[in-house]
Amino acid sequence: MIEWQDEGAVLSARGHGETAVIVDVLTAGHGRHAGVVRGGVSRKMAATLQPGMQVQVVWKARLDDHLGSYTAEPLRSRAAQVLGDRLALAGLNAVTAILSEVLPERESHPPLYRRSIALLDLLGQADLWPLAYLRWELALLEELGFGLDLGACAVTGATEGLIYVSPKSGRAVSRDGAGEWAGRMLPLPDVLRGAGDADNLEIVRALATTGYFIENRLLHGLGHRPMPAARQRLIEAIQRQS
Questions:
Q1: So where are the chain's domains?
Q2: Cα dihedral angle (109, 114, 119, 123), rounded to 10 degrees?
Q3: Of 167, 162, 111, nearest to 139 (Cα)?
Q4: What is the CATH number that goes with domain 2-77?
Q5: How many helices and strands, by DSSP H and E, does the chain display?
Q6: Which residues pair with 99 in a beta bridge?
Q7: For the domain with range 80-150+188-240, which CATH number is right: 1.20.81, 3.30.420, 3.40.1000, 1.20.1440?
């Protein structure tokens, strides 16, 4: 029998048979990891297994490659931050949906785990959350091997006047460097380079660029999976906050 204990955030839960639930948890030490919770459809367990819930889990299986079973204990609920807050709910759904789609199962990513938990802990803080989410998408791309290089123009080497991102290389491009290819470039708002705060409309522009790479690098490499619809609902919620 194989057994381990870890802490993490629930990403999703789906029915399995009459009374059990298969739960996907983003864990600190074991990455995105699934397991069966017996009796997971009960009222008490259903509350514990809500997406975003911070839980202590024990996973057991006869062999390492088996689905295995979880026992889960609640550590921290984020329901209060989400209840009645359209932006927070959209944010929670987007983060959990994207992580469920792009993270390889059972592959540990400690830096991304810490950033994801910190982001979830900011739910409900509408003045901070959109920018924190943009930074999280950049970190997600970096962690999974598709980080953007925005320090200098890929064509001229210039460090000033950078207004585009190349959709092919993920590198910054200046106006002069883009030339006749400008129409094919992605936007590079100042906020994407870490140039201080920005209003929500500029953040939405930046999310168009990070979203391109999530869809065409991360999801494309996983069999042309579509971008989770929850992300577009988040962008619409951010626009409404403008």
A1: 2-77, 80-150+188-240
A2: 120
A3: 111
A4: 2.40.50.140
A5: 8, 8
A6: none
A7: 1.20.1440
**pLDDT tens digits for 167-188?**
999 999 999 999 999 999 999 9
**Band of pLDDT at residue 242, cut at 50, 70 and 90:** confident
Question: What sign does the dihedral 128-193-189-195 (CA atoms) show?
Answer: positive
What are the DSSP E strand ranges found in the chain?
2-16, 20-27, 31-37, 54-61, 69-76, 162-165, 172-174, 186-187
Locus of tokens 């001229």: 156
Beta strands 20-27 and 31-37, pairing class: antiparallel
**Is the separation of the CB atoms in 227 and 215 below 8 Å?**
yes
Instruction: Specify which residues 3 forms β-bridges with.
Output: 60
Taking only the tens place, the pLDDT of each residue in 71-87 is 999 999 999 999 999 99
Q: Which residues of 79-99 are buried (b: 16+ CB within 10 A; e: fewer)?
A: eebbeebebbbbbbbbbbbbb
Burial of 132 (0-12, 13-18, 19+ CB in 10 A): middle
d(CA 36, CA 39): 9
Read off the amino acid at residue 183: G
